[in-house]
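@channel sequence for tomorrow's demo:
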Amino acid sequence: MHSLDGCRRSRLSIGSCTLIALLVLPGLAGATLVTGPSLPYCDIENQYGSTLAVLGGRSVVVGSAGEFCDFVQALDSSGGIVWSLYDQDHSDFGRVVATIGRDVLVTHLGTTSTEVLRVEPATATVRATLRVPEAVSSSFALVAVNQHVALLEAFGSPGGVIYLLDARSGALLRKLPNPEPELFLNPVIARVGRRLVISNIGAGFMDGTVSILDPETGTVDAAIRSREAGDSFGSAIAADGTLIAVGAPQAASGRGAVHLFDRRGRLRRTIVPEDPDATCFGKAVAVRRDAVLIGAPCTSLGDGEEGAAYLYSTRTGALLGRYPGIERGGMLGLNVALLRTAVVLAGRGPDTADNGVVRILPR
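structure tokens (generated this afternoon):
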């Protein structure tokens, strides 16, 4: 891995990047568009923004495991580059990112095992390399909980596997089975307090179950079922404090819905789109304190699938902000994140469906 400013002093380097494309979008007041680096091969099928993780509430870590160039970047609330790392060894570096305290967790597929690098971004120091002692597919997710790292593999046998690793030493602490082995483990995982929140979706990605799991014992504290048949319940999940947001983008004949639960699985509120054009509302969700950001990337506002995102109060359900896409096929809201003072929206670039873009707007 190297920094985007050309530093190659070590296997992992870091630096400020001057090659990021920052554009002001005329259709979204105050928005910044980030398209990723202009290095050779890094702008081809890069899937930029396919994974997002909030770091300290003030910056967002953007993952991009592309076809030819893998890279991870941290952006501040105005869209400026904070630091960048990249790898051209076809290792799926950055396909999944997460944060733990002030550090960043980045996945890396090694030759014999999957690695999770714990990186201190200011100095590019690798604090620990966590290795899963088994072959893991590229369809997985991870989250930090109690100074441990939980890595969820979608296609483990039987029916999915959860690996719990020590965040400091990298030691494998325990291996937990999928709490719903009859379903297909959806690569979505979050943390609420000292518990894990894991999504499972059945055949055809229709009905789902969200489990609240004690990672120390493997005990399922609560299992939350689909609210209606075929709603794709659990396609997206997010948690903050004691609140869990669960997306159901196929609810209401594809318009979608987001359900808010407490950490015991009790329903607190259901949010449905007021916008008549909204489609697959709940495909992506992010929660921060008393706000929930919801992506509706299938929304067609004009030419088709421009996408949109919506910000709601978790306390009242009131709409706080609407962020419509402006490009045909842009699918704004494929992924979302919430900073203290900004919203982060990922979508597709105008040149190719496999290139991603990230838009950052003030809240």
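heads up for whoever presents: The longest strand covers residues 184-192.
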